[in-house]
Predict the structure.
Amino acid sequence: MALKLYDSLTRSLKPLQPANANGVFTFYNCGPTVYAPAHIGNFRTFVVNDVIRRLLDLEFGPDKVKHVRNLTDVDDKTIKRAREEGRALAEVTKQWTDKFHADCDALNCLRPHVEPRAADPKFIDAQRNMIEVLMEKGNAYRAADGSVYFKVSSFDGYGRLSRVKERELQIGTSLSHKSQAVDADEKEDATDFALWKAWKPEDGPNKWTGPKGASDGRPGWHIECSAMSKAILGPTIDLHTGGVDLLFPHHENEIAQSECCNGTTFARHWYHSEHLLVDGKKMSKSLGNLYTLDDLVAKGFSPMAIRYALLAGHPRKQLNFTLDSVHAAKVNLGDLRGWHEFLVIRSGGQRSTPSGHFNSVFDALHDDLNTPAALGALFKTLKSLGITDETPQVQVGSILSAFERVLFAFGFDLSAIDEPKTEAPAEVTALAEKRWAAKQAKDWAAADALRAEITAAGWSMLDRKDGYSLEPLKK
Ligand code: AMP
Ligand code: ZN
């Protein structure tokens, strides 16, 4: 079964397929604004997108997927932070970009193939060019202060993604939203949005040559994704993703800019993941209710346990974050490591063609990224493997390979879970000693009976050539 995801535009579940004749699947994920550490709400979105990337790699082959995630390194927030700290914008954004990369690595997220920055001179050029085309085509205009705005009424398709026009009719309010109310006197219509912002004194040294006919200044936020995705992936992309808060206005505006400029479909598939909440409220910098990765690591959790906890809820449903959920994740990862060690020992460490044992896990992942169902299927499958001392090594090797495919898809690095090993109680150790002796004496019946006793006591005995270890079984 191929990966299917809910498409926010058509409101339906659709399989993902590359449109390009070269078979390369193009994937654009809106990235972070780099002015502070990302919080684990942001990382929910990035971890979910990392699982999508991994599933695409498995389905199409790693060289047939092109993944782009941008860095917003020039906007109101980044400029304000640089001004407050009396530092250069580039220095501040580099600091937080490095931190973002370190956190992504700790969470075992694959790096995107390209990570363009909005303030990179070549992408400033790309943004300026796009704005000039929009002005020439009559989709954008210069305001009195030399800024450039997109004329929303010039694009019939505006509101298709967010159904904003329907919502407006229902609640009888205007299309405008809070950030658009700012500078309203510069615009022809309250719904128009900035493509280019003319320089203001508070922007300090941060200004670039404006599009033809406009003042020097800086790009508006939305244009960066339109311009950079076009420059790297072409005018039409196979999949565009982000957190649900980006659906309106950011993605609606991206569609308007790109489709008016390029005259073709911008994204063939839109996927939005839901928010991480704390006490029922969205985790956000402005509410101050956030946890960073470092906060949780300081509490003794591994980044891998946090990754697991972020994937334990359905990505298209809100997830309430609790420390209990990270505790549970830590225990589950310990179990997965136990199973992995068991399979390595029983297979003699040999891998072979993956077996179909974990197909139910992939079925759940492929069905709109149902990660909680997939984790349920994973543990169910592990418990029903029924491997005995007589199971041929080569057979266990193919189960091991299939299990490692699942671990890859989830991005669980079991060498990085730093969970202290639990000591087995004395009576279990005694049973294990007896079983080891029975095995040496080739008394298989006694060895199997003793294994059953060890299992009944909640432990798993992992055999090696020169000895054994004991792992607690999941309850
Ligand atoms: P930002 O750095 O604010 O541009 O956000 C980066 C990404 O994190 C975007 O895709 C947002 O939609 C997403 N995001 C922000 N807050 C949350 C949250 N509480 N839960 C999940 N995703 C979030
Ligand atoms: Zn974007």
